[in-house]
Design a protein that fits this description.
- By secondary structure, this protein is α/β, with parallel strands linked by helices.
- It has a ten-stranded parallel sheet, with helices on one face. It has a two-stranded antiparallel ribbon with strand order 11-12.
- Helix 4 runs parallel beside helix 5 and helix 11 runs parallel beside helix 12.
- The longest helix has 35 residues.
Amino acid sequence: MDRWSLGEAAERWQEAGSGPREGPGTMDNDEPLEPETKDEGDTVSASQSSDETLYCEAEAPTVVEKEKPGQESSETDLEIEDTEKLFTTGQKELYLEACRLVAIAIALVSNTTVLTLELADNCIMEEGILSLVEMLQENYYLQEMNISNNNLGLEGARILSEFLQNNTSSLFSLRLSGNNFKEESAELFCQALSVNYRIRTLDLSHNQLSDKAGEYLGQMLALNSGLQSLDLSWNHFCIHGAVALCNGLRVNVALKKLDLSMNSFGNEGASALGEVLRLNSSLAYLDVSCNDISNEGITKLSKGLEVNESLKVLKLFLNPISMDGALLLILSIKRNPKSKMEDIDISNVLVSEQFVKTLDSVCAIHPQLDVLYKAVQGLSIKKTLFTWTNPMKLIQSYAEQQKISVLDFFRSLNPSGEMRMPVGEFRKAMIQQNKVPINRYQVRELMKRLDEKTGMVDFRSARAPRGLPSTLSQPAVLSKAP
């Protein structure tokens, strides 16, 4: 059978959809694909097109029954039955999946409205990746594609790498988590991204990248000036790979978000990251949770925080850090008057009352800062369950006195008057305003209500509490905010 390009296939598809049809399925030579039945005629409606919904259905190839010769032996019968059984239990499913992917790719060739394509966990094979790549070469509207958890392996990486090296599409976000990528795959991707600066978001989490891959990624990051978000969590980077990766980060000027959680950086990796924070001026989000970093590594990391002017979020959850290490972190922020740090997550660390007092002094200098820790050591629940006024109730009371709406109060905090505000700026504005007395724990509770999942606080979700008690059941200092 001749193989058409996706562009030719799309044209034929459009011609088939717009031209007259004599039966439920015909080809160019007018031979019916399937015998027409009453049930199919009653249930299958005419094909429809929609800019919002894409629906593709693939059917199995028609089984052609052949009459067996009368003198055929029983052994031959068994062989034929086994062959047919093998096809129906294995190849049929693969065929159907390939048809669906090709159909989707053909439909997207000329599509101008679909911006995001989700194909995670779909058993995409080599043929499917080839079809998707060919589609992307002709589609200039698709911006985000998720093909995670498809076990693409080295061959899939090779196909994608070749596409990325000659990418002229609008694609800027590529999610490739859980695809069994190893060192060779990392090398291919890094070769492509060393010349392709269109991709801004890349997810390579849950793969099998180790130290050699760290070298390739470090070399790529030293050259790439377009990538802004990189997820390398749940891989196998150890000390050597961590140091090599950090060598590239030291000179990178574009990356803003880096997730390295669930690896094995250790204290030497933390030391290399500390040097990165001393020199890098673009990184705003760093997650090194569960990387076997102890107080020794925190000491080196803190040296970088003393001079860094870009980092806003630092996640250190599930590292073997004690209260002494936690103290080093917040003191490094205190010593840096230009620090932009907003969130530090050490929510597995048990702290002392003295730590809380020190944190209060740090927050007086940096009101945008919030530190999540496990609990205050030595304090019983009974001792800490004092009254904490519901922050929304306080704001509602003030708004009623001033004869304004709650929304007007929040809007007054934003100099631009807009309905959304960055998390750090909102926290700082709430602490520094003198209209409603509120502490940082109440601000944290308030931000939960205002839905700040994207790093922005949205005032439109603010509403006066109805039927809620005037006190919180437990102070926020005791538990990790979700």
